[in-house]
Design goal:
Elements lengths: L4 E2 L20 H14 L4 E3 L9 E5 L12 E23 L2 E19 L5 E7 H14 L10 H15 L9 E2 L4
Parallel strand pairs: 1-7
Antiparallel strand pairs: 2-3, 3-4, 4-5, 5-6
């Protein structure tokens, strides 16, 4: 099932998501639907809040972003917690399916250590660096109620204000199904 992507301005994107605690919650079905939704929108990551679900879960497939270094880097993260972020901060242009048409350089630490469960409830504690760490950090921010635009300077945010307002009103170009905030 392909979900609509929630657009900038919807309050679900600014809420801290809740852990999944219901043992009967079908995380495999949701993960499958999230991958299908992400691929239909040509994304490399998708967090549950982006489809209107305020739960701590995201999926990613980094291979389209870096075929050589991220080949097979397809994962489901359930109830993740970033344990460490360190290393030199480096800039990279990021975009977001919930904020179509806006891409800006964001600086993030180069290394993370994260604890999470996969769709089979297998537990992991892993370290990632470079672009893999960045994709995880971006999606993790979504479950914390943070958007990549929050890292921009005040001047840059003011320059984007009109475009962001238009996105929240549904006045934007998108090539996938979106859900805009109710007025």
């Amino acid at each position: 099932m392909i979900y609509s992507i929630v657009a900038y301005g919807d309050p679900v994107l600014r809420k801290e998501a809740e852990d999944i605690t219901d043992p009967n919650f079908d995380v495999k079905k949701l993960a499958s639907d999230m991958f299908e939704t992400m691929y239909s929108a040509h994304g490399v990551g998708l967090a549950a809040p982006q489809i209107g679900k305020p739960i701590r879960m995201f999926v990613l497939d980094g291979e389209p972003m870096d075929e050589e270094n991220l080949k097979g880097f397809k994962k489901v993260f359930i109830n993740p917690t970033i344990l460490e972020e360190d290393g030199e901060e480096w800039g990279f242009e990021e975009g977001c399916l919930s904020i179509p048409g806006i891409n800006e350089e964001v600086f993030r630490p180069e290394r993370i250590k994260i604890h999470y469960f996969d769709e089979n409830w297998k537990e992991y504690e892993e370290e990632y660096t470079g672009i893999a760490a960045r994709i995880i950090q971006h999606e993790y921010d979504h479950i914390e109620g943070v958007l990549f635009i929050d890292y921009l300077s005040g001047l840059k945010k003011r320059m984007l204000k009109g475009r962001l307002t238009n996105i929240s009103k549904g006045k934007c170009e998108q090539r996938y199904k979106m859900r805009f905030p109710k007025k």
